[in-house]
Amino acid sequence: MPPTSSLVSLSDIRAAAALLRGVAVRTPLLPADELAPPGSGATVWLKPETLQRGGAFKFRGAYTFIARLDPALRARGVIAPSSGNHAQAVALAARLFGVPATVVMPVTVTAAKRAGAERFGARIELAGTTTAHRMDRAVELSRTTGSVLVPPYDDPVIIAGQGTTGLEIVEDLPEVSTVLVPVGGGGLSAGVASAVKLLAPTARVVAVEPVGAPKLTRAREAGAPVRLERTASIADGLMAVEIGALPFAHHQAYVDDVVLVEDAAMRDSVRWLLDRMKLVTEPSGAITVAALRAQLVTPVGHTVAILSGGNLEWDGLAELLANG
Fold first, then answer.
1. Is 58 a catalytic residue?
2. Is residue 278 among the annotated active site residues?
3. Contact (Cβ atoms closer than 8 angstroms) between residue 66 and residue 100
C-alpha cells in the first residue's frame, strides 16, 4: 500500500478546485427532509453530481488531469478506459482543450453512456466486460498511438479533482456530521473522504458499494486490495473488480465505515429520487440514498448523500423501473 506521505493533501484539492472554477458546476446541497427519521433532529442533504457537466462527478477529475498535462503532451490526444461516466468526462474535457479522445468501454455499455461519449466527439472502442479488460486495451492503445492515458481513479491528480466534491460540501455545510459516498474504483470516495476529514475531522465518512461488487469491503477485511472473481449489479458504474491501490490507502486513513446495498434498494431509490426530488439518477448514483432508505446508515446531525451520476437514457430508465 502506498505510504501515507503519498496521500493527496488539502492544498492538492484546493489547487484542483482553482482549475475547475468557472468550468465545473458547483453542485448545490438539496434538502431531502423525508430521509431524516421523524423527531430525530437530523437533516439530510443531497449533493447532485447528476447535474455536473457530463452528467457525473467524473468531469472534475478528468478535467483536472488533462488541464495539468504539458500542452505538447496533451496535443497527442488522450485515451480513457471506462464503464461510461469517465469516458464522457474525458471526451468533454478533451473537446474543451481541442484534442482528440479515444475511450475504451465494455461491450455491455449502456446506450446513454456510449451516446454521451460520442456526442462529445470521442472515438469509441469496445473491450470485454471488466475493468481489467478495458485498462489492458487502453494501455495497449496508449503505447501504440502515443495518446496519454487518463486513469479512471488510481491517480493522485484524479483523486484531488474528485475531492473537490467533498471540499464544496464542507464549505457549504461546515457543520456536516456524516457524508455518504459511492465507491467503485475508489477515486471519488478517496477524494471526498480526504477533503471531509481534513476540514471536518469529527465528521463520519461512509463508503457505499453494491452487494454484488464488494471490492472495498473485501479489501478492508484483507488489509489490501483484493481482485474479485466476478461482479454482478445494476450499478454499472461501481463494478470495479478491485479497489485502486492509492484510493485504498486514502480509505484506510479517512473512511469510517463501508456498507453494502442490494440492487432492489437501488432500483427503488432511483424511483424515489425521480418522484420526490425530481432528479434522474442512475443506480450507481442512487446507492447512497438507498443506504439511507434501507436504514443501513442512520442520519445524525447534518448528513449528506452524494449522488454520483445520472447518465440514464429514457428507455433505460423505463426498463429499470418496470423491472422493479
1. yes
2. no
3. no
Choosing from 58, 113, 197, 215, which is the catalytic residue? Answer: 58
Which ranges of the chain have pLDDT less than 70? 1-5, 324
What's the pLDDT at 3?
A: 52
Helix (H, G, I), strand (E, B) or coil at 155: coil
| Whole-number Å distance between alpha carbons of 72 and 180 | 39
pLDDT, tens digit, 9 for 90 and up, residues 150-173: 999 999 999 999 999 999 999 999
The residue annotated as part of the active site, out of 194, 269, 284, 308, is 308
CA 235 from centre of chain? 12
Q: How far apart are the C-alpha atoms of 48 and 312, rounded to whole Å?
A: 14
pLDDT digits (tens, 9 = 90+) for 131-143: 788 889 999 999 9
| Contact in structure between 314 and 59 (CB atoms under 8 Å) | no
Residue with C-alpha cell 466534491?
Answer: 165
202, 256 in Cβ contact below 8 A? no
Task: Please return the burial class of 97, using the count of CB atoms within 10 Å of its CB with bins 0-12, 13-18 and 19+.
Answer: middle
Pairing of strands 123-126, 43-48: unpaired
**Residue ranges of domains in the chain, CATH in brackets:** 4-56+156-323 (3.40.50.1100), 58-149 (3.40.50.1100)
CB 238 within 8 A of CB 112: no
Helices (H), 98-242: 111-119, 131-145, 156-172, 187-199, 215-222
CB 153 within 8 A of CB 187: yes
Do 166 and 191 contact (CB within 8 A), yes or no?
A: yes
| DSSP letter assigned to residue 55 | G
Residues 241 and 131 sit within 8 Å (Cβ to Cβ): yes
| Nearest residue to 83 (alpha-carbon basis) of 138, 34, 120 | 138
Residue in this structure with the C-alpha cell 495518446, named with its chain if needed: 147
